Amino acid sequence: MTPHPWSVPAPVEAERVRDVERLGMLDTPPEGRFDQVTNMARRVLGVPAASLSLMDGDRQWMKSIRGLEVDEVPRDKTVCRTTIARAYRRPDDPVLIIPDAAADPEFTELPGIGGPDGVRFYAGYPLFGPTGHPVGTFCIYDTEPRHLDPQQIEAFTELAEWAQRELERSAELDRAAEIQTQLLPRPLTGLDGYRVAAVCLPAFTVGGDFFDHYCGGGALMVTVADVMGKGLGAAILSSSVRASVRGASRVLERYGSGAGAQDTGAVTTLAAEHLTEDCEHTSTFVTALLAAVDLPTGAIHYTDAGHGLALIRRADGRIDPLEEGGPPIGILPGTTWTSDEAQLEPGDVLVICSDGLLDLLDEGSDPAALWEFVAPHTCPDGLVTATRELVAGRPPLDDVTVVAVRREAA
Fold first, then answer.
1. What is the per-residue pLDDT for 235?
2. Which residues contact 279 (CB under 8 A, 6 or more apart)?
3. If you average pLDDT over residues 17-31, what whole number do you get?
4. Exposure on the CB side of residue 160, measured as CA atoms within 13 A
5. Sign of dihedral through CA atoms 173, 178, 183, 186?
6. Model pTM score
7. Local structure of residue 133 (DSSP, 8 states)
8. Please, what are the domains in the chain?
């Protein structure tokens, strides 16, 4: 049997579909950065419709489409099936231009081709996935037959390359998000007398919030930090903050006196010395709260560097905010931070969060909204679950992080 001119050999097709899946983009919400490309194509080339789509095994799904009312099309009913096949057969000439699809026997039977307000002109360019397989198409359409002159073909190709860059950026961001998630500490279990739960939910694919917790020197060390800004730049700097805080803590554990890493003021100061140039060069700053909970006694030594969002939910339901401290890291070079103290009694829960949670709870950033949200939760896991549900119901404009530590009742 002669294969269809748009068919792809089965082994190759399997790899191609896996490349589509690697993108993790199928059935995701619209994104302005893709709509910009399709809108620009309509304006620059004077066509009524443009699309950016992904070709799954049996359907063409539109990530962005302008000028046509369709979300997806069966694969065997779309012109773009030929653009995908052409990418394999003519890799040096991937642009498919059909001046009048209604006059081409290969396409006349497809729905939407020809007829009143039907597609006549088509131009398609393949888009490629992480391992180089064609995973989708960038296309323009017209209801009248037409040709593209050399300058228009050049403009169309440049727009397709823009679409390709946006697709690659999605893959890179997904990988960055995966790495950022992997860098978060594993859940703490088997901690005698304490229960810990935490969550970090970026507003975008990656974010500038992070948390850390680990045991050292007889204490539970907890850090929550928030890098000014959002997205990939903030995420990169947050990794530097995490490394600097951990490194400073280890130095004091090994070489410090008495309190060691529990001298949270010294840890913050030492970490800030490493971060000063990073903050200066990137014109940013970092708010952070570092707490050391002495496991035998529940004594808390903490340092607040411009963070201001920590409290203790007492066993009787009262809320005791922790005192705010010095400026954020990166604001005033040479700042020295000092430690404050609090006490975590049996049944109490220490809660540290980022301002993204407060923004979701109250647009005026009234701390009372945070207290009201925390008050019903005597268990860290319940507070984390409530935070996830809040974010799921109302996507945040800023990263949301919560760490909760409960000292179990004796």
1. 63
2. 237, 285, 286, 329, 330
3. 87
4. 22
5. positive
6. 0.60
7. -
8. 10-177 (3.30.450.40), 185-407 (3.60.40.10)
